[in-house]
Amino acid sequence: MTVRVRLAPSPTGTLHLGTARTALFNWLFAKKEGGTFLLRIEDTDIERSKELYMQNIFEGLQWLGINWSESPIIQSKRVNEHKKVIETLIDKGFAYRCYASEYELDEMRENQKQNGLAPRYDNRHRNLTPEQELEFIKDGRDPVIRFKINDQKLISWDDLIRGKMTWSGKDLGGDMVIARRAPADSIGDPLYNLVVVADDSAMQISHVIRGEDHLANTAKQILLYEALDLTIPIFAHTPLILNSEGKKLSKRDGVTSISEFKDMGYTSEAMANYMTLLGWSVPEGVNERFKVSEISEIFSFEKVNKASAKFDWDKLNWLNSQVIHEMSPKTLFKNLEPLFKKNGWDIPSQEWGRDLVELLGPSMVLINDGVDQAKPFFEEPELNTDGKKQLEIKEAKEVLSFIYGYLQKLDSSFIDEMQALNLIKQATKTCEVKKGLVMKSLRAALFGTLNGPDLIKSWVLLSRFSKDRARISRFL
Ligand code: GLU
Q1: Would the CB of 196 count as within 6 Å of ligand 1?
Q2: What is the pLDDT of residues 194-217, one digit of tens each?
Q3: Which CATH entry fits the domain spanning 1-68+239-326: 1.10.8.640, 2.40.50.140, 3.40.50.620, 3.40.50.300?
Q4: 9 in ligand 1 pocket by Cβ < 6 Å?
Q5: pTM of the complete model
């Protein structure tokens, strides 16, 4: 079988984590099977669909390394094809116009509620006579087109993730609306389930891999495939992603879109790695830290859980720090340089930049941590409380004066590591203080705080930027 899969996002918002995870599973599966991964933009909701969101979706997928074949299908451009499919359904007697008004439908639902029944359309206009129809038309009613759903029918499929699934026709809410605003001379606006079937079939999609929230749609779509005599694809429904409280991950959880994760400083590699683990368990003996481009061979739906996946920030952070720690200084600097520049920071040289990020890298979890940590190298820091306390110690000033005096006597404007070490040793001896006091006072004067990366390396970098003397002299 030729494997053809697709992602069918609606451009009504930015690329959501759940959609990106579905994209990854589709892409991994296509890669494993030597198949094709396609993109279809479901923009039939004209009012809510935006070009901006479409671009965000493309960029997000590209950033994650998910590449698609062929030009993306833009669903709204296929509306004539969709209408033809609806015409076929009407011609074959599978679909009809329903003229029930909003008021009548509300009343119907209210009655059902009062009788303890689940709300559903009661198929009241399934068998209208031509005379009845004419009356409604004369009445100026705005009909919809409904597809007949047989309540007695059991709909089954073998889901690649969830196994054998069975839905009863009676649980699908009655005859389904497949087009709105459809007066007698027009097919109107085709709706979701119909257009998905028409498009998946036209695109020769072999496997529909999408979120578990589409289970009921799958049952409805299978009925459409059958009515239209089309080949039914194989289905796989991926588990939902829940927040730490076990609720569906939503906007309320803060970040949900891929571009937001990117802006926070997550790497594409860690994101793709983490999202693959949202629902998929690695086979025994395989490390959870991997490059998605290298695991398609071992990816399989048997290892995708039926149970929902809980979003775990700690794990994502751990993966992101792993990715950062594995980066060469060159790569890490490439990631940080634009952010430094955005802050208006002048970088003395590429080499200096690489040395700086090499120093900061080991304590970074997010790429953006590198910006916070690099700040005192570029901008004169305020003394924090601990730094202030340190510099209030009587001997601190003496130590700083000694160091400053020594630096002033140097020929070169910057020092190397040997010189820095020596100078600390000499200050300790001359001022008769502990080495710790020298180190802490120096750090406070240079960086405003008592914590940070290796002091000698930091100092050397600052001196290469000719900033160390000025900073020390502030406290003399
Ligand atoms: N546009 C639908 C969504 O974003 C696609 C569902 C499907 O894959 O069929 O949920």
Answers
A1: yes
A2: 999 999 999 999 999 999 999 999
A3: 3.40.50.620
A4: yes
A5: 0.91
